[in-house]
User: Fold non-specific serine/threonine protein kinase from Cinchona calisaya.
Amino acid sequence: MGLFRSLFCTFFMLKIISAQPATDPNEVVAVNKIIGHWNLQTKLNMSSIDPCTKNATWAPDTANPRIACDCSATVCHIAHLKIYALDISGELPQELFMLKELTDLNLGQNVLSGSIPAEIGQLSKMQYLSLGINNFTGLVPPELGNLTQLQSLSFSSNSFDGPLPRELGKLTSLAQLYIDSSGVSGPIPQELSNLKSLQTWWASDNRFTGKLPEFLGDLKALTVLRLEGTSLEGPIPNSFGGLTKLDDLRISDLSNEDSSLNFLENLTSASILSLRNCRITGQLPEKLSTFANLKILDLSFNKLTGQIPNSFQNFAALNYLYLGSNNLSGELPPKLISSELLALDVSFNSISGSLPQNALGISMNVVGTSINDNASRDRKTSAKLNCLQGNTKCTDIISSTSFSINCGGTEIVSTAGIKFDNDSETLGAASLYTSPNTQWALSSSGIFISNPNGPKYIAQTDSQIRGTLDSELYKTARISASSLRYYGLGLKNGKYNVELHFAEIQIEDSQSWKALGRRLFDVYLQGEKVLQDYNIQNEAGGSKRAVVKTFQANVTNTVMDIHFYWAGRGTCCIPFQSTYGPLVSAIHVTQASDSVSSSKSDKKSVGKIVGIAVGSAAGLLIICSVFYLLWTKKAPARTRVDTDSPGKG
Ligand SMILES: *[C@@H]1O[C@H](CO)[C@@H](O)[C@H](O)[C@H]1NC(C)=O
Ligand SMILES: *[C@@H]1O[C@H](CO)[C@@H](O)[C@H](O)[C@H]1NC(C)=O
Ligand SMILES: *[C@@H]1O[C@H](CO)[C@@H](O)[C@H](O)[C@H]1NC(C)=O
Ligand SMILES: *[C@@H]1O[C@H](CO)[C@@H](O)[C@H](O)[C@H]1NC(C)=O
Ligand SMILES: *[C@@H]1O[C@H](CO)[C@@H](O)[C@H](O)[C@H]1NC(C)=O
Ligand SMILES: *[C@@H]1O[C@H](CO)[C@@H](O)[C@H](O)[C@H]1NC(C)=O
Ligand SMILES: *[C@@H]1O[C@H](CO)[C@@H](O)[C@H](O)[C@H]1NC(C)=O
Ligand SMILES: *[C@@H]1O[C@H](CO)[C@@H](O)[C@H](O)[C@H]1NC(C)=O
Ligand SMILES: *[C@@H]1O[C@H](CO)[C@@H](O)[C@H](O)[C@H]1NC(C)=O
Assistant:
């Protein structure tokens, strides 16, 4: 017994000694300098304690800041460093690159700035590296290609510029690559075709150029691919047909060449397929209905023709079906609305038919179709707006020459005495709403895919809004994950002034990572793009600050069409999941007096820009210049107009 005890004690003491080897002294110095550099002493005070102390409070997975060591060799090394969402700022300190044994570095969701030094390439043991949501600038360092052990790399939501380095193609162990909204531009390097282990690639909202590369079809391990809001050109290559593991595919806003849906044939595991505005032609593939996991199918703003296949009545799991703004025809399959379906958008197609009894429970948008939806007020609106497809002339009883809406809010009379109508109805994922006075209607489509139970299409704040006497008007706003369209109805034909009121109320203005979000969206007036990549914060000079854009547009068919569209641009998730897409606070439309211009030279009847932001000296100057131009009968400046644009409906 005594012998056993002493043997045990010896073993136990040896164990303690051997379990606690010395920590690399260079790393101890470096880590203390890093803590000092970011003023983290109060959160992480180890000035007189070994950072690798056993069972330290800063070592568990959940600790933040976290420092954890690998003591498996004769010396302890710092292997994990996490300083996450603590708003550390400034540049990366050189001491960071002395932690050569790091396998896991997470500096995500801070406001780090400057460029990433080439020395990052020395941290060759790295497996998990997150620099996402920061304020880094400069080039993405090619030296990242030296970190060949990397399994996960994120530098999403930063302000880099220049190309995506081809050296990233050396990261053949990479399973996750998050580079959305990072600022990179130019072609997607061919070398990325070597990333055979890549499962998740978020790459939306980067200015990639050239064609959507064929070689991405070689990344056979992909389960998640996001390429929304790039500058890539179509078509979607047939090689994508080989990505049979895809679960979540999101591509949007491809330009130039048309695509077909033939590649989808074998992507049978997909649960999310979102291919908005990709110039897709041809018919809806019957086979889609056999995709047992498919929950979200968004093919809106394409050029699909033919009927909705009857097989679409057999989806097993489909919750959201978006087919709006295509050229589909024929009857709506009578049993399309199943128990699983939560939202249906077939707006702006040549579809007819009527909706079954069970249709009342789901969100639906059938505006611009010949479908009888029975809800009396909205049916009349649908009928009125059917003409916007271009086939027939809109006719309506002329009832007004103006309308005003407090988007997302209740009725308000502004300091100028204008009554802004109540627009606080709760909308679903596909909705048409007609105001009680039938002077305007609202068509809304889109689901915040990663957050379907999140924002309910209205944003609000309790904060005061600066730069206006009408703060209340801006405290609520309509938001959308795809398309938000207001229609003035029964308007006397003629020239109108359109005032669009905006204030950013979701993205912060602060020294925090929460201020790093970028909201970008497009606006079409009477089918013409008048604002592209509009950023409210930039225009207003901050968040919770009002800005008014004024345009002139002609009504020739009793309808005013004001369309807010998300082209996949901007950050997705700052300060919270699904912070993106259009946001509008109020709309005020009035008939313009004819005194400004009487030119008959231009036969076009749609949205020319007149004014820019009102309320600044520059804005006034621009307006003066425009009036001068109009006076001298020269055409005012126009924004770039894309004729194959979603606004064409
Ligand atoms: C860190 O801890 C040491 C003693 O362990 C103490 O003397 C020092 O004041 C602490 N520093 C901070 C910033 O809390
Ligand atoms: C560390 O924690 C483990 C388990 O939580 C425990 O068994 C061990 O005694 C602790 N060691 C020290 C040195 O505190
Ligand atoms: C790291 O990458 C750079 C650029 O890709 C290269 O020039 C350098 O030789 C690499 N260094 C090491 C140690 O591999
Ligand atoms: C789908 O798989 C079949 C059988 O392997 C193959 O013949 C066909 O070409 C594939 N389709 C596409 C679009 O890749
Ligand atoms: C829509 O389809 C019809 C045939 O159904 C065709 O005549 C028409 O040109 C198409 N319109 C567009 C804009 O493609
Ligand atoms: C819609 O109207 C048709 C006839 O106009 C009627 O048969 C049907 O029951 C109505 N549907 C609903 C949901 O009220
Ligand atoms: C405003 O609209 C909402 C939703 O349509 C409605 O419930 C509410 O009663 C309206 N408020 C007023 C004052 O009309
Ligand atoms: C990010 O950096 C820019 C300059 O590049 C600066 O103007 C901005 O204030 C920074 N953002 C934050 C939240 O620190
Ligand atoms: C409106 O129509 C008039 C002529 O009828 C034309 O001169 C003017 O340019 C049009 N305005 C816009 C914004 O298209």
